[in-house]
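Students often ask why we bother encoding 3D structure as a string. The short answer is that it lets us treat folding as translation between two languages. Here is a chain of 269 residues written in the first language.
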Amino acid sequence: MNTLSHDNHSPLLEFRNVTIIAGKKKVLDNISVTIHDGEHIAILGPNGAGKSSFVRTINREYYPAVQDDNDVVFRMRGREVWNVWDLRALFGIVSNELLFNFTREISGREVILSGFFSSVGLFHNEVTTMMEEKTDAILQFLEIDHLQQRPMTSLSSGEARRFLIGRALVHDPKTLILDEPTNSLDLHSLHTFRLMLRKIAKSGTGIILVTHNLHDIIPEIKRVILMKDGRFWKDGQKTDLLTDDDLTELFRVPVHVFRQGGYYYATGY
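And here it is in the second language, the structure alphabet:
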């Protein structure tokens, strides 16, 4: 029996009272959250709030600290024990660390193909016809087929990120997790990235967007989690939480929020 399909009715992710200690520092403090298939969520907070630590916890790089006084739940699809390779069918993760690791003399096409092997480059892995066909489909879907033979070192930051997203999509993950995806993007690249992300969201793949930029939140994202000091401070509808008062308290500067074309922007700081 396919284990992944067997527990498809359980939440995609369920954390309760999860605390993460990295070194001697508490990077996540008693967080609780439930995420279901197909949800589009933004996790918004200042630098140092613990957003990337949350991503590393999903990816099983971090594990909860043992707590005697709290009932800790750390489940994905109703299970606490996972082979990390099996998680690829649940989550595709794109981070700035991944971008750094792939800034080398390998082509964009190789980057996507390497997703089948969880490697950086192909080395001596055997690429099948199915993998080639899937890569072709992803290149066309993300509209980057014209860039596929160029080395990653010659691509712009925005172009390179699109290939990493393609790499994350090879296993048809239920949810795509993007950790600070618009860092260093110019206005044109930001516009192109937004269009691509909206296309992915409309295709049925869930989006978890981790950011400190209010304008990264695409219209398809309806749920927002405000994060500060390693905690999930508020969790609710975008229209309720993206307010002057909440964002002023979150970022500790005076913020005025306005909406235009389905996007939210902050001024006043």
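Translate back mentally: The CA atoms of residues 175 and 206 lie 4 Å apart. Keep this in mind for the problem set.
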